[in-house]
Each structure stands twice: as structure tokens, then as C-alpha cells.
Specification:
The protein is α/β, with parallel strands linked by helices. It is built from seven helices and six strands, in the order E-H-H-H-H-E-H-H-E-H-E-E-E. It has two domains: 121 residues, Metallo-dependent phosphatases (Purple Acid Phosphatase, chain A, domain 2), CATH 3.60.21; 43 residues, no CATH class.
């Protein structure tokens, strides 16, 4: 199984910065995963290496962003997925949502640029998160037109407002190289 999530409509590489604040609720304050910076490095015993500090924390962000550059982007992602699928025929590509919103282009196209990107990547199954930013009509339009027989949306907790009927299947079962795999959607 391959899983992508929370790309926030960033098709191109970006300068990624980890947060400098992560507030844990009640007893989780100051505990993993709600720790940042030096506390994060110390807790996970990450060696003093500027590359690792840049990858996992906000420390010296401006300095090392110039050294290490941008990360991500769908061209890199597509290459990686293609290589892995060549090594693992039958692998499923799952998308955890937060894909259609987060950039100007996505806003101007109501997420169509990202819908097209998902289709090009070969996403098999996805669930929703902030895709509903564009409204229920847009989500249903993409589901029924763009994704028809290509990408299946699963979301066990998306219900109609009137009677609470499910809008999407709660899960799907796929055969992956002889093994039954159940993918459950939690939007």
C-alpha cells in the first residue's frame, strides 16, 4: 500500500517548515507528538546533524532552507510512485484527503487542478478532509464524473443532513497480490 495525504494542493516543490508550536491537550502537553525544536530532537534521540534538524524541526529554518532547498512536488511524487509500483505490481495508492485546497490555482479551479493530478498519479482510493471547502455539490460532481470508475471515495462518517444516510461507502475491500485489504474512510 502507498499512502499520500495533506498535500494541500501544492503541485510544485515548496520550502517546508515544521511548526514551532504544537500544543497538546490536557495531559498531552509537552509529550510526543506535541513537542517541537530541541525537545523533539532530544526526545527522539536524533543526532546533532543540520540536515536532520532541518527535516524534522523549525530550527535554523531560513539558513538551511537556502542550503537544502525546496522539497516535494508532484513531479517528484509521480516518479517515486511509478518506481515503487514497478517494484510492487498491484500496490494500491491511497489518498488521505486535504488534496483539493490550499493554493491559488486550486481555489480558482475549485480543486480541478488537483483532481487532474490525482488522476495522473493513479490514486485508487481516497477519503475526504477539506475537499468539502468547495461544497457538497462539487464533491459529488467530482465523485460521479471525474472519478467514476477511476478513484473510489470512501468515508464512513459523511452522512446526509436530512436522514443521516451514508453518502459514500464506508470501506472497500480490494485484493492486493492475493491478500484481501479493507480500506476504511474516515473523513
Amino acid at each position: 500500500l502507498l499512502h499520500i495525504t495533506d498535500c494541500h494542493a501544492q503541485l510544485l516543490p515548496i520550502y517546508f517548515r515544521e511548526p514551532n508550536v504544537n500544543i497538546g491537550v490536557a495531559g498531552m502537553a509537552g509529550k510526543a507528538p506535541h513537542i517541537v525544536g530541541q525537545n523533539f530532537l532530544k526526545h527522539f534521540e536524533i543526532p546533532a546533524d543540520p540536515r536532520l534538524a532541518h527535516a524534522f524541526t523549525y530550527l535554523d529554518f531560513e539558513r538551511y532552507a537556502g542550503v537544502y532547498g525546496k522539497v516535494g512536488g508532484f513531479a517528484h511524487l509521480a516518479t517515486l510512485i511509478k518506481r515503487i509500483k514497478a517494484q510492487r505490481p498491484g500496490a494500491l495508492l491511497l489518498d488521505g484527503g486535504d488534496s483539493w485546497q490550499g493554493s491559488g490555482a486550486a481555489m480558482w479551479t475549485k480543486g480541478q487542478d488537483m483532481v487532474d493530478a490525482q488522476l495522473a498519479l493513479g490514486v485508487d482510493i481516497m477519503t475526504l478532509h477539506w475537499e468539502s471547502t468547495y461544497g457538497q455539490d462539487r464533491v459529488l460532481e467530482v465523485s460521479k464524473k471525474d472519478f467514476a470508475n477511476k478513484i473510489e471515495i470512501v468515508a464512513q462518517n459523511v452522512k446526509t443532513a436530512d436522514f443521516g444516510d451514508p453518502v459514500f461507502k464506508p470501506y472497500v475491500i480490494r485484493n492486493v497480490n492475493g491478500v484481501k485489504v479493507r480500506v476504511i474512510g474516515q473523513a
